[in-house]
C-alpha cells in the first residue's frame, strides 16, 4: 500500500512541469526546518492511509500550474493556493527505495537480504516485504496474538460452530434378532436375564435356566428345578463369566460351574424368594422378599457373612458399583439405600444414603461407568421418574419424567448415554443423553411390558426380555469403526502394560 501511495504523490508532483531533483527544493528544506525535526519520515503505519493534507484551511487549494503564468511565492499563512507535501508525513525515502528496487535486476545474496530486513525493521518498525497487502503466493498470514477483528469477517481459517458437521450416528429402530422366551414369568420384581463376559446370555424360563451362546447361537439347558412349583427368580454372572448364581422361589442361592455344567454349592440363609443378585469379587449379595440383603462369601463354608436390613418390603433392585465401594438397593417400599462395602463380620450395618423421593417401587438401579459416585434409579407405575444421584453428597443431580413404568436402566460404555426399559403404557426402550437428559431415540417392538435389560460384553448390544415371551437384541450402541479400532488398540496397550508389570 505504501508503494502505491507514494507513486501517486510523485505523479502529483510531475504536474508542476519542473524536473524532480535528487534533493528537495530549497523552499522544502526551509519548510522542514521551520516545522522542526518531527517524527521519522517513515513513521506512518502501512495498514493506515497517510494524512495527505496538513493545511487547516477550510477552502480547497488551487491546482498548481493553472492559476496563471506568474510564479507565486510560498504563502506564509495557512490557506495558500498550492499543496506542498511535508516530508515529516510522507515516506519519500521509502517510495524512492521501492521504485528503484523494482528496476534493479541484480540478485541479492541471502546475507544481504537478512541485513536489509534488519535495517528496515530498525528504521521503519516493520518489514517492507510484510507491508504488502496483496500476495500472489505463500501461506495465509495469521493474525497477531491478541488481535480482534471488529469487522466480523465472513471467512476464517477455523470452522464456525454452525458449519461444523453434526456428530450423529445411525441407531437401528428394529431389533437385530428376536428370540423366543416361552413361559418367562411376568413378574416386575424378578431379574431373569444376564449377559456374561464370555458372551453367554442366561435366561430363566419358569423353573429352568438356558444359556445362549451369542457367537455360535448354541442353546444349552443348564438346569431344571426338581419340584414343578419352584421357579427361578434371579440370575447373575460373576465378573469372570465362569460361574452363574441362581436365586430360587424357595429361598435358595445356587452356584453353578458353566464349563462342567454342574452345581457347586447351595446356600440357604433367606426365608423367602431371592429376587435379585449382584457380585462384588468373591462376595455375592442377594435380596429377598423379606426386605433383607445377605452377603455370601463363596470361598468359605460359612458363606453368610453379613445382613443388611434397610427395607421393609421386597428388594427388587441390587447393584454393586464398579469400584466395589458401594451397594445400591431398591425396594417395593419406594426406598433407595446406598450401603458401604463391608469386610465381613456380623452385626447391624446402616446405609450411607437413603433416598425417599420415588413414589413407586424401585427396581432399576445402575451405576455410571465413568463417574463412580453417580447412580441412576427408576420408579414403577406410580412414579415413572428417572433420577440421577450423587451418592457422596446425597444430591439429586437430575430428574426426568419417563411417562412409563421404569423396569431397568443400563449405562453405555461407548457413549455418554444410558438406556431405560419401560412397561405401561408404551413398552419401549428409550436412549437418554447424559447429563442433558434429552431423548436420543425410542425403540419400540415389544407388545407387553419390558421386564429386564442386559448388555453384551462389548457394550454394543442390549437384550430386552418382555412379558410378550420374546427376547430382542438391539444394536443401539454400535461404535464407529475408527473409534472401535482406537479403543481396541488402547485396551491392548493397557493389557500389555499389565502383563509387563506382572512379570
From TrEMBL:
Residues 35-46, 56-70 have a biased composition (Low complexity). Residues 15-83 are annotated as: Disordered. One of its GO terms (molecular function) is ubiquitin ligase activator activity. Pathway: Protein modification; protein ubiquitination. GO terms for biological process: anaphase-promoting complex-dependent catabolic process; cell division; positive regulation of anaphase-promoting complex-dependent catabolic process. Residues 179-474 form the CDC20/Fizzy WD40 domain. One of its GO terms (cellular component) is anaphase-promoting complex. InterPro entries: Cdc20/Fizzy (IPR033010), WD40/YVTN_repeat-like_dom_sf (IPR015943), WD40_CDC20-Fz (IPR056150), WD40_repeat_dom_sf (IPR036322), WD40_rpt (IPR001680). WD repeats lie at residues 232-266, 308-339, 443-474. Keywords: Cell cycle, Cell division, Mitosis, Repeat, Ubl conjugation pathway, WD repeat. Component of a complex with CDC20, CDC27, SPATC1 and TUBG1. Interacts with NEUROD2. Interacts with dimeric MAD2L1 in its closed conformation form. Interacts with BUB1B. The phosphorylated form interacts with APC/C. Interacts with NINL. May interact with MAD2L2. Interacts with CDK5RAP2. Interacts with SIRT2. Interacts with isoform 1 of NEK2. Interacts with HSF1 (via phosphorylated form); this interaction occurs in mitosis in a MAD2L1-dependent manner and prevents PLK1-stimulated degradation of HSF1 by blocking the recruitment of the SCF(BTRC) ubiquitin ligase complex. Substrate-specific adapter of the anaphase promoting complex/cyclosome (APC/C) complex that confers substrate specificity by binding to substrates and targeting them to the APC/C complex for ubiquitination and degradation. Recognizes and binds the destruction box (D box) on protein substrates. Involved in the metaphase/anaphase transition of cell cycle. Is regulated by MAD2L1: in metaphase the MAD2L1-CDC20-APC/C ternary complex is inactive and in anaphase the CDC20-APC/C binary complex is active in degrading substrates. Belongs to the WD repeat CDC20/Fizzy family. This is Cell division cycle protein 20 homolog. It comes from Cyanistes caeruleus.
Amino acid at each position: 500500500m505504501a508503494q502505491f501511495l507514494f507513486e501517486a504523490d510523485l505523479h502529483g508532483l510531475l504536474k508542476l512541469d519542473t524536473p524532480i531533483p535528487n534533493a528537495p527544493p530549497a523552499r522544502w528544506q526551509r519548510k522542514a526546518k521551520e516545522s522542526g525535526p518531527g517524527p521519522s519520515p517513515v513513521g506512518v503505519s502501512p495498514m493506515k492511509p497517510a494524512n495527505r493534507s496538513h493545511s487547516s484551511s477550510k477552502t480547497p487549494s488551487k491546482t498548481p500550474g493553472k492559476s496563471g503564468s506568474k510564479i507565486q511565492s510560498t504563502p506564509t499563512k495557512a490557506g495558500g493556493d498550492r499543496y506542498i507535501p511535508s516530508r515529516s508525513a510522507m515516506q519519500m525515502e521509502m517510495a524512492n527505495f521501492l521504485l528503484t528496487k523494482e528496476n534493479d535486476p541484480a540478485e541479492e545474496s541471502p546475507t544481504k537480504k537478512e541485513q536489509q530486513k534488519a535495517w528496515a525493521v530498525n528504521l521503519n518498525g516493520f518489514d517492507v516485504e510484510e507491508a504488502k497487502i496483496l500476495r500472489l503466493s505463500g501461506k495465509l498470514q495469521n493474525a497477531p496474538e491478541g488481535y480482534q477483528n471488529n469487522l466480523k469477517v465472513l471467512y476464517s481459517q477455523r470452522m464456525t460452530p454452525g458449519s461444523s458437521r453434526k456428530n450423529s450416528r445411525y441407531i437401528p429402530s428394529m431389533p437385530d434378532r428376536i428370540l423366543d422366551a416361552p413361559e418367562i414369568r411376568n413378574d416386575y420384581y424378578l431379574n431373569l436375564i444376564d449377559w456374561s463376559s464370555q458372551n453367554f446370555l442366561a435366561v430363566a424360563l419358569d423353573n429352568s435356566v438356558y444359556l445362549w451362546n451369542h457367537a455360535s447361537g448354541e442353546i444349552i439347558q443348564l438346569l431344571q428345578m426338581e419340584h414343578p412349583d419352584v421357579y427361578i427368580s434371579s440370575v447373575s454372572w460373576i465378573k469372570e463369566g465362569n460361574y452363574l448364581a441362581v436365586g430360587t422361589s424357595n429361598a435358595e442361592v445356587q452356584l453353578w460351574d458353566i464349563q462342567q455344567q454342574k452345581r457347586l454349592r447351595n446356600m440357604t440363609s433367606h426365608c423367602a424368594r431371592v429376587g435379585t443378585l449382584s457380585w462384588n469379587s468373591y462376595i455375592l449379595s442377594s435380596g429377598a422378599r423379606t426386605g433383607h440383603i445377605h452377603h455370601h462369601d463363596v470361598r468359605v463354608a460359612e458363606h453368610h457373612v453379613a445382613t443388611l436390613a434397610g427395607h421393609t418390603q421386597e428388594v427388587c433392585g441390587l447393584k454393586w458399583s464398579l469400584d466395589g465401594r458401594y451397594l445400591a438397593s431398591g425396594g417395593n417400599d419406594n426406598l433407595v439405600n446406598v450401603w458401604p462395602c463391608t469386610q465381613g463380620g456380623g452385626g447391624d450395618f446402616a446405609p450411607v444414603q437413603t433416598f425417599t423421593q420415588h413414589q413407586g417401587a424401585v427396581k432399576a438401579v445402575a451405576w455410571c461407568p465413568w463417574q463412580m459416585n453417580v447412580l441412576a434409579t427408576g420408579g414403577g407405575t406410580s412414579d415413572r421418574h428417572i433420577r440421577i444421584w450423587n451418592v457422596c453428597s446425597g444430591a439429586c443431580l437430575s430428574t426426568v419424567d419417563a411417562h412409563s413404568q421404569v423396569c431397568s436402566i443400563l449405562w453405555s460404555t461407548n457413549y455418554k448415554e444410558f438406556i431405560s426399559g419401560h412397561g405401561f403404557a408404551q413398552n419401549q426402550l428409550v436412549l437418554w443423553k447424559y447429563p442433558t437428559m434429552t431423548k436420543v431415540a425410542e425403540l419400540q417392538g415389544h407388545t407387553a411390558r419390558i421386564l429386564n435389560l442386559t448388555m453384551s460384553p462389548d457394550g454394543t448390544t442390549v437384550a430386552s426380555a418382555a412379558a410378550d415371551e420374546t427376547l430382542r437384541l438391539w444394536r443401539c450402541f454400535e461404535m464407529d469403526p475408527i473409534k472401535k479400532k482406537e479403543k481396541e488398540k488402547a485396551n491392548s496397550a493397557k493389557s500389555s502394560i499389565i502383563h509387563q508389570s506382572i512379570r
